[in-house]
Amino acid sequence: METAELAIFLGSHFVVSNHNSLLYSVEGAGRLVEDDGRPMKRGADFLVHTLIDALIDNVLPTIDKMSVVAEEIEEEIIRNPQQLTLETIMKLKRSTLRIHRVIAPQREVLNRLSRGEFPLITSEAQIFYRDIYDHLVRIQDLNQTIRDRADNALSTYLSSVANRQNEAMRVLSMVATTFLPLTLLAGIYGMNFEYMPELEWKWGYFALLGVMGIVIAVLIWRFWAQNWIRWGRGRVRRIRPFAVEPKKLIGYIERLAKQSH
């Protein structure tokens, strides 16, 4: 999200605006003036109100789009969190911070304009500036909500990545734990000592394989008992949406009708 600056100078009978990039709000106010001159008929303060009101209203579509992006991020984190998801979260956070830095100082300015502290703003126009102030407060609240959602999404992303790493470490730990005793047995009987009675047994090789198999079975059972292996366990059913019975609600029409009788 990028921002642009609009400077406005208000006099008793003139308005001067300055901006270095295209602003749709100024273009829209200019078209209104060209069509019927409506923004200029009630004085300079109303013309400034038209410019600021259009400028603030043009921020709302950006806030709405950022809210949609925040919702998409939350869904993506649940499905498949990736590095690109983290980059999107950080861009969203930077956008909310940029809006906060721009909007926060303007609240005090518009608040003072709407309270009659300046004689250039007539009492008739003050209520319109109050309406702009209310819109600005609403934008700031929505922006803070998106910022909080971005923070929560970042925490959820980190937790999800940590859980995936824990799952990978669990698998590696299971493999290492399973092959560790097998490596020990193979290492013991792989030594080149001459006097090892088990080496001359006819069924020694098969006995060693049997011991290894028993070790593997015991370890797998142990992992399953500790819920490290979820194969063979019942899955939790997906929670379904529920609805409260209307008859239990205060203000339900049929309930009120029965009470009246």
Keywords:
261 residues, mainly alpha, Methane Monooxygenase Hydroxylase, Chain G, domain 1, two-stranded antiparallel sheet, 7 helices, 2 strands
Can you describe this structure?
There is one protein chain. The protein is mainly alpha-helical. It folds into two domains: 7-164, Magnesium transport protein CorA, transmembrane region (Methane Monooxygenase Hydroxylase, Chain G, domain 1, Up-down Bundle); 189-261, no CATH class. Helix content is 67%, strand content 3%. The chain is built from seven helices and two strands. It has helices at 24-36, 44-57, 60-79, 83-114, 123-188, 204-225, 253-260; strands at residues 7-10, 15-18. The chain has a two-stranded antiparallel sheet with strand order 1-2. Strand 1 and strand 2 (15-18) form a beta hairpin. Helix 1 packs across helix 2, helix 2 (44-57) runs parallel beside helix 5 (123-188) and helix 3 packs parallel to helix 5 (123-188). The chain is elongated. The model has no long low-confidence stretch (mean pLDDT 83).
Overall pLDDT? 83
Helix vs. strand class: mainly alpha
Count of discrete alpha- or pi-helical segments spanning 4 or more residues: 7
- CATH superfamily (homologous) name of the largest domain: Magnesium transport protein CorA, transmembrane region
Q: What's the CATH class of the largest domain, please?
A: Mainly Alpha
Pick out the low-confidence regions: none
Distance between the termini: 61 Å
Strand percentage, roughly? under 5%
How many domain units? 2
Global geometry: elongated
The number of E-state strands comes to 2
Instruction: Enter the CATH topology name of the largest domain.
Output: Methane Monooxygenase Hydroxylase, Chain G, domain 1
Q: What is the gyration radius calculated from CA atoms?
A: 35 Å
Major sheet summary line = 2 strands, antiparallel
CATH architecture of the largest domain: Up-down Bundle
Largest sheet: spatial strand order: 1-2
SSE pattern, N- to C-terminal: EEHHHHHHH
Query: Residue share in helices?
Result: 55-70%
